[in-house]
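Hi support team,

I submitted a single chain yesterday and got back a structure, but I'm not sure I'm reading the token output correctly. Could someone confirm the output below corresponds to the sequence I sent? I've pasted both exactly as they appear in my results page.

Thanks,
R.
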Amino acid sequence: MSKLLTVIGGTGTQGLSLINEALKDGKYKIRALTRNTNSSKAKALASKGVEVVQADINDKQSLVRAFEGSHAIYGITDFFEPFGAHGPQKAIEIETAQGINIAKAAAETSTLEHYIWSTLPNAGKATNGKYMIPHFVAKNNVDDYIRSDKSLLAKTTFLWITWYVNNYQYPVFTPIYVKSSKSYIQLSPAASDVPIKSIGSPSANIGKFAYAILNKPDISLPGKTVVAYTEETTTGKLLQDWAEVTGNKASYVQTNLEEFSAIWPGWGLEMGEMMKLWDEVREKSWEAPDGAVTKEDLGLGNEKFVDTKAAYAEMNWAEIL
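Hi R., thanks for writing in. Yes, this is the structure output for that exact sequence:
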């Protein structure tokens, strides 16, 4: 009898990527949790044999019911929806509560063998409290809760997903056209040589890591951290690769955090502090306290990923710019 894999956010980027990878293998029965079971993406999953179930991560009991019989669970929360509606501090409260709801419901699932929690490094600890970046803090609060539950921790893998190439579609990162020079500039509070670990195409590549985690529990458990990246690049090279793919001229312009934040109120500070963190911590940005599991450890060293340039080429720049 096939084991059951339950994926929160089954129609989102991360969840859908994992489901697509699992469907190729057919080893698991798959249950996708979503808020709207009538969406086109939900119906498309159902047509592939995926069980689509409505669940609310604000309601622990709805998760307990949705997790029933699950052997593996993929947990994820979205900071940026409440951030856009309520600002950073309220968003931390909401995402922390949601993540703990998921963890508690997972812990109550008697059949559970493996819990993958999509999270981020602890920037506060890495910088002695200098960079308490809200979208990191919320997930780190959940990390702490999971670590306090030794039984759940033994079944948990912490998954750190690195730079999304499609971050370039968001205004704070999208290159800006300068009409007088017929070229683009990208503003950033970080230097152009800041090391960046990139996941490449998130929709194509995240699922490969998540599914490999499930297939190698001897490597990914107990309580191990996996850093998911397909290539190592820099802030400046990300821009030059974009320019090459789109056929544009582009220059990287470093500014300070205050100016960057003033241009994009709220979002500029949130993302600008992340860039400053990576600038100051550099190669240590994705260091796990007990050492990280790599793609080579997971048997993905020779995997053909969709890299940064290929991911740029798939995006519709006519609509974004």
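A quick pointer for reading it: The longest helix spans residues 88-107. Let us know if anything else looks off.

Best,
Support desk
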